[in-house]
Amino acid sequence: MTFAPKEALSRRIRALNPSPTMAIDGKAKEMKARGIDVIGFGVGEPDFDTPEPIKEAAIRALHEGFTKYTPVAGIHDLREAICEKFKKENGLDYAPDQVVVSNGGKHVLFNLALALFQEGDEVIIPAPYWVTYPDQIQLAGATPVIVSTREEDGFLLTPSLLEKAVSPKTKAIILNSPSNPTGAAYDRRQMEEIARVCVKKGILVISDEIYEHIVYNGFEPVSFAALSPEAYNLTVTVNGLSKSYAMTGWRIGYAAGPKEIIEACVNLQSQSTSNITSFAQKAAVVALKGDQAPVRTMAEEFAKRRKYLLDRIDRIPGVRCFHPQGAFYLFPNVSAYIGKSFNGNRINNSEELAQYLLDEARVALVPGEAFGAQGYLRISYAASMEKIKEGIDRIEAALKKLA
Ligand SMILES: Cc1ncc(COP(=O)(O)O)c(C=O)c1O
């Protein structure tokens, strides 16, 4: 019998979708490599360099020979620095044994999915959602229950939408505030309303707060676990250094929550990846405990870009754009352009519109479908002002050509 590698793949993996945002970025990079001048608004990666003191800490650790295995959950200094950060910035009390450090927020969430979810479980995800959540839940054998939020509600889940989605099988909800892809964020009152339902129904909350430092116009982000002792007991708080400190390539994420859940993640990690890179942990301590001015400087720069882009987008006929409270994405409603044509070719959905903009305007964007929302495009403004100006000029010109 001939061996067919494809047949060898597990059911789990056959059902898995590759990350669409990574796919778009790959396409744009491949076009760039062929000499095509593509502007990348696709990927959620700050264009800034990692602040110098953080890099220096890693170099120092290397020179000092800090290159061996560390405790699986992370070195004590780092877990302590994370606890201090939670106390200072979020008003949260966690002990180091309630903290696990993993290879990025994505890995933290993957560990949590495998540690918590199984066949028969339902996990609520408000849409538009970050692309990775549903696939990780499915990998664990559980069922994602997608609850579409409305643009009119600021892309926020309401208590009544949540109540309707809860069933006896509901195990957890994943909340992401500020959100990728919409940038929407819950204020304290809105979050308290969600917490009331979660506490009443005994639903575990995975609170992904990775964009907490990138907020606008004085918006004050709230940690779900800090809302009340009841909320604290049923929440796992997820965060990471990728976005706040421009450290995407370093792969540093962390979770804090009930000891039993964190221990389960550590056990899982001990049988899969073990500790994250030893010297990256030393750098993470410096990032968290050092001067936070670079975090604010980057957030201020994002604010300028957001304002510029919103001013421009709001003037494009037919495009309506939610003004987000955080993150570095805009999620314009482009449904007025669906059904239009270019050279006799009809654009049937936002995926085809994104493809048209890549071909015609040479701008890479992610279509709303990737986030569970039809009729939208996600623009990541983690790009220089010069690229942003050029990119939006091109988008505007290409949209004008549609009839
Ligand atoms: C909402 C959200 N959570 C988590 C992550 C994970 O980031 P990382 O794995 O780089 O920490 C991302 C990255 O795009 C994200 O957008």
Can you offer a commentary on this structure?
The structure is a single chain. The longest helix is centred in the last third of the chain and has 21 residues, at 293-313. The termini are far apart. The chain has two domains: 5-49 and 294-400, Aspartate Aminotransferase, domain 1 (Alpha-Beta Complex), CATH 3.90.1150.10; 65-289, Aspartate Aminotransferase, domain 2. The protein is built from 15 helices and 14 strands. The chain has helices at 5-8, 11-14, 20-33, 52-63, 76-90, 105-116, 132-139, 159-165, 188-201, 229-233, 259-270, 278-289, 293-313, 350-361, 385-400; strands spanning 39-40, 99-102, 122-127, 143-148, 170-176, 204-208, 235-240, 253-256, 329-330, 341-342, 345-346, 363-364, 366-367, 377-380. Bound molecules: pyridoxal-5'-phosphate. Pyridoxal-5'-phosphate (PLP) binds next to helix 6.
Q: Which hetero compounds are present in the coordinates?
A: pyridoxal-5'-phosphate
**Tally of contiguous helical segments:** 15
Number of strands: 14
Q: What Rg is obtained from the alpha carbons, in whole angstroms?
A: 21 Å
Distance between the termini: 55 Å
Number of domains: 2
CATH level 1 class label of the largest domain:
Alpha Beta
CATH topology of the largest domain: Aspartate Aminotransferase, domain 2
Residue ranges: pLDDT <50 for 5 or more in a row? none
Query: What is the strand arrangement across the widest sheet?
Result: 2-8-7-6-5-3-4
**What's the CATH architecture name of the largest domain?**
3-Layer(aba) Sandwich
Q: What is the name of the CATH superfamily of the largest domain?
A: Type I PLP-dependent aspartate aminotransferase-like (Major domain)
